[in-house]
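Input structure tokens:
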């Protein structure tokens, strides 16, 4: 706990940024050495007077609640010096000094895909995010997002439905849930992943916190998928940061009449990969992994693009059997399969994401030949 107290004090010291601390740790590798140097009056440290006064003080009352919080179940403090600190995030230009983690800290080292988008998406955007996350999580990817309403929430829920893990990076202290309506979702994420923040306990949802947390979402992930984003949205900040960190940026196109698709179209014009199905992302992973090299503790093999319908349950196999390779309508598939129209429509979307079927003009579908 003593080392944790030193890191927390360095984080809270007024006038001392994470960049300042990283610079000083190059000279004083241990936080105890750094704090001792300040207390002994080491010259030319370049630290603000307020920070020196704070660190010289023997009363760090503000960190007592956090030390108490760390005693709770699945509560962790991952510092920049901790071997569990994710390497991909460490290698960005501005990694956080500490990460508060509620859940499994091992998820930080998993192969992650960030999914972000509008807080006010269309119903179609919500369904697209959910379905992509469900399928990608099922392949073994960890889905990382920001717990916000809209696309973020749909992405987390889809990952949970897919039986995979998901990680939420938030812009508040971990004693708060924002938005409050996502309290139950946050609890589910803790059970199957983690909720993460760089902010001390009690930090409210200030507007400036969310662009800052976006750098962590982008930094943790091998790539970022944007699903519906208006121009000048925070999602585009995440995409920009991902690109600056050398990570892949993916974007789902939408209708030219949909204002929440314009940000995605802008990203595509700037070089983001246009994504129509989950396989478009999975096909990029081997190259991304080779360029970035998997973090220590990451699984030796990354998710691969699905090779076909193997692994689908009986209803999906039956639907494919009713389809063949000639264009067919949803009504015809309902008649042939005995499934409901709602079930067929949902299953067709999942099969399209897996690259097993293709949608055609006029609301028709056809099975994709694996040899083509």
């Amino acid at each position: 706990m003593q080392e944790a107290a030193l890191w927390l004090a360095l984080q809270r010291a007024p006038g001392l940024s994470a960049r300042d601390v990283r610079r000083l740790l190059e000279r004083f590798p241990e936080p105890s050495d750094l704090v001792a140097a300040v207390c002994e009056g080491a010259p030319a440290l370049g630290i603000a007077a307020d920070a020196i006064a704070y660190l010289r003080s023997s009363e760090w009352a503000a960190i007592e609640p956090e030390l108490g919080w760390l005693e709770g179940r699945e509560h962790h403090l991952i510092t920049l010096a901790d071997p569990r600190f994710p390497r991909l995030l460490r290698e960005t230009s501005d990694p956080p000094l500490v990460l508060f983690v509620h859940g499994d800290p091992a998820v930080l080292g998993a192969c992650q895909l960030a999914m972000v988008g509008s807080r006010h998406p269309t119903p179609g955007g919500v369904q697209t995010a959910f379905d992509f996350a469900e399928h990608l999580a099922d392949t073994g990817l960890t889905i990382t997002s920001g717990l916000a309403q809209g696309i973020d929430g749909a992405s987390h829920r889809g990952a949970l439905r897919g039986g995979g893990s998901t990680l939420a990076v938030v812009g508040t202290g971990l004693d708060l849930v924002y938005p409050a309506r996502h309290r139950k979702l946050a609890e589910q994420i803790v059970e199957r992943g983690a909720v993460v923040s760089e902010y001390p306990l009690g930090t409210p949802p200030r507007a400036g916190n969310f662009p800052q947390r976006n750098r962590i979402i982008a930094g943790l992930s091998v790539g970022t998928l944007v699903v519906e984003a208006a121009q000048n949205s925070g999602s585009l900040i995440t995409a920009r940061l991902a690109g600056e960190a050398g990570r892949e940026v993916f974007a789902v196109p939408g209708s030219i009449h949909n204002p929440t698709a314009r940000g995605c179209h802008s990203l595509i014009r700037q070089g983001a990969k246009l994504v129509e199905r989950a396989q478009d992302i999975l096909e990029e992973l081997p190259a991304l992994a080779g360029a970035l090299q998997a973090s220590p503790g990451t699984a030796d093999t990354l998710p691969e693009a699905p090779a076909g319908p193997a692994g689908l349950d009986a209803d999906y196999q039956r639907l494919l059997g009713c389809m063949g390779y000639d264009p067919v309508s949803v009504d015809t598939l309902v008649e042939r399969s005995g499934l409901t129209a709602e079930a067929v429509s949902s299953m067709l979307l999942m099969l399209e994401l897996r690259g097993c079927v293709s949608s055609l003009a006029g609301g028709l579908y056809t099975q994709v030949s694996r040899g083509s």
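The radius of gyration is 23 Å. The chain has three domains: 1-60, 105-292, 314-367.
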